[in-house]
Amino acid sequence: MSFPSLDRLSLLENFGHSIGSPAYVYRPTHAEQIAELFEKASRHGLTVGLRGSGRSYGDAALNGGQIVLDICRMNRILDWNPETGVIKVEPGVTIQQLWQYTLEDGYWPPVVPGTMFPTLAGCLAMNIHGKNNCVAGTLGEHVLEFTALLPNGDTVTCTPETTPDLFYSIISGAGLLGVFTSITLRLKRIYSGNLWVHAWASPNLRTMIAEFEPLKTEVDYLVGWVDGTVGGSALGRGQVHTAQDLHEGDDAAPAQSLRVDYQVLPDTFFGLVPKSILWQFMLPFMNNAGAPLVNTGKYLSSRFLSHHHRFLQSLVAFNFLLDFIPNWEKAYGRGGLIQYQSFVPKETAADAFSEIIKLSLRRGLPNYLGVLKRHRPDKFLLTHAVDGFSMAMDYRVTNGNRVKLQKLCDELSEIVLQAGGRFYFAKDSTIRPEMAARYLGEDTLRRFSELKARCDPEGLLQTELYRRLFCSQNGSRES
């Protein structure tokens, strides 16, 4: 049979449906098949890009015209110890599989993204953060050990103590150094499937940032919704949510709240409307006229109907807000969306994020949804982390605004870089190689280049993100 086989050719997209490219997709079930795929790609002069659930907003899981290795079928639970909370899994296990497998034993993933569908390999390749980053750090900080197959043919077992160079670079390495084959991590002990949530309205961005600071060590989760469609004294207004885990004995019926069926999100809205069609009702509002109306309604509701509201909410409902409405990203229309997320030190965050919102409004490209989080630094090589804040912002893409939107993002990135900020490869689709070099620094780029040459001397592992940002530093495999 020819390689690559034409029946493997598929059109792949990013999560926001704003970028797409055809690739030859292979879905192995065992590490031996990955090694065989590397060998074949090498013989045929092709590159291999890694892909999990395809939830990246950017081009990190695309490899146009080349091979894409989809690890979703490698999704077995290999070992679970409910006494210690230590679990060993294959790389294609999703966050959803993880919490559903361990919840009734009283354990929850220590860090989760805003959706439950990414694979653990994808989460670690990008070293995801959650609404508890200022307390728990990134997911990589909770990994005890992993095994990975390198393109050079080696299988390595990595821990923070025995192989720190590989441990702290393959985690955060965007799938460019090796393929996870097993992951061992410690989960979080919980005593209820519920959280105590406190929600209140915040009149503007500067106030919200000030409110975050004393809370960063007092609560278990901290996140803010930011309205990017208004300026003036209300610029960055929004709503803050904090959440606290229940302690042992606080839940009168923990066996019930720790049941999987208690956590599952409903399929209908108000018990009547199927959620699967709700994104179609959102379509008329995903524009520069409709989004401000929706955001104003949300803010007024938080200000006058639920200001300082305290309530119990399930872990799934609080953590996975992006999963409430299936296919919500389709509401942005045929051009899709990009998400622009930047991380800025606490000293400069208020000024930088305020200027970002103002500039977006001046350019006629407001972001329709903004999310603010508090962060702490970490040890990983290609880290996005700072002692400060991140703001993620959703921008609608159309055929008519693509060039204008890229120009805006260039301007926004300059604001971020001037403020000492960083970017996140899971979300990025707009920064340029010189921008990546400025925030990563010469030493990080040198170390990454040396590791790439050591782990992947032929340059087999590549993605569109890699070619966009790193090929000028590391060279490109001819294909």
Sheet with the most strands: spatial strand order: 17-12-14-13-19-20-18-21
The name CATH uses for the topology of the largest domain is: Alpha-Beta Plaits
**Briefly, what CATH class of the largest domain?**
Alpha Beta
Spans of at least 5 consecutive residues whose pLDDT stays below 50 are 474-479
Which word captures the global form? globular
Q: Radius of gyration, rounded?
A: 22 Å
Strand content: 15-25%
Strand elements, count:
21
Major sheet, described briefly? 8 strands, antiparallel
Report helical residue fraction: 25-40%
Task: Tell me the span between the first and last alpha carbons.
Answer: 20 Å
**CATH architecture grouping of the largest domain:** 2-Layer Sandwich
Structural class: alpha+beta
Number of domains: 3
Q: Mean of the pLDDT scores?
A: 96
**Number of H- or I-type helical stretches:** 17
Task: Give a verbal description of the structure.
With 479 residues, the chain is of the alpha+beta class. It folds into three domains: 6-72 and 447-474, 2-Layer Sandwich (Uridine Diphospho-n-acetylenolpyruvylglucosamine Reductase, domain 2); 77-189, Uridine Diphospho-n-acetylenolpyruvylglucosamine Reductase, domain 3, CATH 3.30.465; 194-434, Alpha-Beta Plaits. 30% of the residues lie in helices and 23% in strands. The protein has 17 helices and 21 strands. It has helices at residues 31-43, 95-102, 120-126, 133-136, 164-170, 205-215, 254-257, 260-263, 278-282, 290-304, 315-319, 349-362, 402-418, 433-440, 442-455, 464-469, 471-474; strands at residues 9-13, 20-26, 48-51, 67-70, 77-81, 86-89, 107-108, 143-149, 155-158, 179-186, 188-189, 194-202, 221-226, 238-245, 268-269, 273-274, 309-314, 337-345, 369-374, 388-396, 422-423. The protein has an eight-stranded antiparallel sheet. Strands 5-6-10-8-9 form a five-stranded antiparallel sheet. A hairpin with a 3-residue loop joins β15 and β16. α12 (349-362) runs antiparallel to α13 (402-418). It is globular.
